[in-house]
Amino acid sequence: MEKQVKEKNELWEWTKALLIAFAIAAIIRYFLFTPIAVDGESMMPTLENGDRMIVNKIGYKISEPERFDIVVFHAPEQKNYIKRVIGLPGDTLEYKNDQLYINGEPIDEPYLDAYKSQITEGTLTEDFTLKDIDVKLDVIPEGYVFVMGDNRRYSKDSRHIGLVDQKEIIGNTSLIFWPFSDIKIVK
């Protein structure tokens, strides 16, 4: 009889430990961090199709997106996109001769240098202004950001889907954890 009670207590202890572990894992995944797979080539060469990354879901609960952050957001097609923040609220934005201008000032994009050197014809980024995206826009309004993929010629981004509401941003990401040979922090 005493042996049965001891076995039941041990089984109950293991069950409690497993339930607590699953609850903690669910809380971490739902509220703090979640994995995501890069789907497509819109962020090449920075991110490759199939890269697995960790999304920090709490960062933007306590702060705002910063220029050049890589973010994951809910896109209009009921799909999550991974893009780079280019324009912030209050910014004017223009591309001219493959040069980014924010509020009239030229801005360097060092993460594109390797890609630009491979271009043999034309520019990586076509010329545009915010007015080309939406004729009513002079500046990016509060609560929105302008995002672009690093593979500018083949990226469906704010030039096509419009500005991204900051409420739709799931979080930012910079850690590739798979494939194992490519583990790194990207900028």
Automatic annotation (TrEMBL):
Swiss-Prot/TrEMBL catalytic activity: Cleavage of hydrophobic, N-terminal signal or leader sequences from secreted and periplasmic proteins
Superkingdom assignment: Bacteria
EC number of this enzyme: 3.4.21.89
Molecular function in Gene Ontology: signal peptidase activity
Pfam families in alphabetical order: Peptidase_S26
Family, as annotated: Belongs to the peptidase S26 family.
Protein name from the UniProt record: Signal peptidase I
Taxonomic source organism: Lysinibacillus xylanilyticus
Taxon lineage: Bacteria, Bacillati, Bacillota, Bacilli, Bacillales
